[in-house]
Amino acid sequence: xxxxxxxxxxxxxxxxxxxxxxxxxxxxxxxxxxxxxxxxxxxxxxxxxxxxxxxxxxxxxxxxxxxxxxxxxxxxxxxxxxxxxxxxxxxxxxxxxxxxxxxxxxx
Length: 107
Prior knowledge:
It is a single chain. By secondary structure, this protein is of the alpha+beta class. It has a domain at about 5-75: Winged helix-like DNA-binding domain superfamily/Winged helix DNA-binding domain (Arc Repressor Mutant, subunit A, Orthogonal Bundle), CATH 1.10.10.10. Helices cover about 65% and strands about 15% of the residues. It is built from 5 helices and 3 strands; from the N terminus they run ααβααββα. The protein has a 3-stranded antiparallel beta sheet with strand order 1-3-2. A hairpin with a 2-residue loop joins β2 and β3. The radius of gyration is 19 Å and the shape is elongated.
C-alpha cells in the first residue's frame, strides 16, 4: 500500500528542485528580500517568485512584509518534520543492517 500524506508529498516535492534547495541553503544564515534572491539566479523574477511560493506552501519559508519589500526567511519546523520522517526509515535500516551483520558473523 502506498503511503499518502499531502503535507509530506508537498514538502519532499518542494525539495526535489535544485534551485529551491539552493534558496534554502542561502536562507540558513540570513534573511533576504525576494529581489536579492532573484538576483542570484539566471531566471526571471517571476520564476523565482514561483519557487518561493512552492517553498512557502510547503512551510519551508516565511515571507514578511517590511515596507515595500517582502523579506524571506527559513522556517525550520518543516525541515524537522522531514528529518523525523526520514529518521524512522534510518532506524529501520540500521536494525536490518545490524541483523545482517550478525548473520554474517555466525556463518
